[in-house]
Prior knowledge:
The protein is about 40% helix and about 15% strand. It is an alpha/beta fold.
Amino acid sequence: MGSEEFTVPRRTVIGGLVGAVTAGTLGATGLAQPARARTRARSPIVRGPAVRLVSGGQPRAAIVVEEPGSPLVAEAAQVLQHLVERSSGVRLRIVGPGDAFPEPAAVRLGRGPKALAAMAEAGVSLGAEHYWTHASARDVLVVGSDHDPGTDSNNYVNRTPATIWGVQRLLDDWLGVRWLWPGDGGIAVPRSSEIAVGHHTELHRPAQLNRQLRNSLNTGHSRATNAWLAEDELTRLNAEMFGWAEAHHMGTRERIAAPHAFTSWWERFGETHPDWFAVPPSGEGYAQPWPVAERVKLRITHPEVADQILADWRADGSPATWSVTPNDSTGFDTSPETMATDFPVGQDPLDVWLGSGNLSTRFVKFWNGLLERMRGERPDVKLLSLAYACYAEAPPPEAGVRVADGTILGVVPAPWHRTGWQDWSDRGAQHYLRPNWWHAGASAPLLPLQLEGGFVEFTQAHNSAGFDFDSVMGFWGSQNPRYYMTARLSSRPELTPDDVIEEYLTTFGGAADAVGAYLAHWEDFTTRASYPLGYPNYEVQDPDGLYSRAVRDHGIHPGITKGSIEALAYLFGDDVVQPAGEILAQARTDAAGDTDVLDRISFLSDGLTELTTVRNTLVLGKQDPDGMAFRTAAGELLELRKELTSRHAVYGEVAYWREQAFDQPTSI
Length: 668
């Protein structure tokens, strides 16, 4: 039996929406008329030659593991088998390369003879992170540039599951599968008794070098004083979180990380070389170590400082990348020699010390000098730093400095500062996005989808080497559309924020309009609230927003982390939360009988329940932290968070870690 004309799903973007289309053979004919976008959660339609996997409720293909010794190829087979079965109820058999099978077609995973021959004929070679998919006649072929170190399989930084990415690409394109949040319940799989893959040949790899969404779950578990997760449960949750991240192609083909680089220097050199450290402004009463030993700044014009940085680099084997990010917080050097390298010259020393000056020029000059010396010893070395706080903005043109080629900067921007991103590009920087936006909101459904999504889209089109988000705080029930937006734009950069929202809503079937109203409710609130996403300088887009009013009227902290927790008690009254609950009630009515969609709506509802419970607990704790009402509420919050953590609706231990760090009354 050869190839057949068959109706197969295919996602296509039409006019900013994910629409249904009809087309001929891929790459051979144009698109025909669009159909209505929001029906059930299913993929649009293409007609053309296809390889059937399932037809009439019967298996029409086997899954052939062509590399039986590869754990990643074996895992790819399991992913395909599981999700096809979830869609159709049909379990495709998995066989080895020499096994016979009765089905007329095959999905062949890995470097088997047919794949190698087809790749040679097409002139395809695979570089780092590439994966190749091909369908013709009776075979679907998937080959990836896998890398599996065999350790810490839950860390996507350490492995490249490119064959799995290829399988997930097929499921995305031809079945309409969407990975909304971690765990099997977060994978939206359209139901279909007919599954096929249209004829095609495609070579893909992630567009950006480095894609990191940090997982805060382990940190919360280790630091919350009332952590409860057993190791096996923690392992499961981490594995599901990393599985979600990998489905969105998180990983790296060039590790880019710029941690604060000098946190041990005071301990190492404070007694023997105190002159290596930042000079405080005279007459102000400051002394080193300031503000604490781990956060002291360097006197970067002292020649021995650069000598020691190079010595440390050499002692570590002169690696290909080296971080020189200044330590966090305040205490920048006010020595005359260093201030002479600033632009503008003559800034107030106290402003410089407290980090409210503009210090980018001094650091660019310092980095350029370091890199010139390092490249004399290793020409391919790259210097890494954050562009952060008082050195977040690029030097102005009149400063007359450019960033040396080989410097990669992690820009920590407000999501409305597109000109700031472009300014670094204009000064010659290769840079990556390193925001702290997701620390904002605490448990609340803070959803700046267009704002953040638009900025991510902009950076991808303007010299971005990738991103490193700090961090996924785990408020999945309330903020999962926010996480999904960034992840989806990364794995499918041809989409727009509107496209991502529309395909997200499509997974809610008949309740799509109601869930759209729910997202719009919270996006409108987010705009009116205007949280300080310009971290760490408490910058807001609207100084008269609800958040800034709460700072003035109720004394909440202006910062992104502590203030977000305190704001729960003031900004999320019933006048805000109750309409959201009513919208979800309408969504349940609209989704009656669709258990998959009802489960997704319940997940969103879990986020609202946790929000109102922690809000009430905070209010009672501030009124009477020793009272029985507070103790009862705190006990109920703990039990709720234990339940919701088990299904990713909230990472309760992370929430407690942040609340306890800022002395917020949510636990006994």
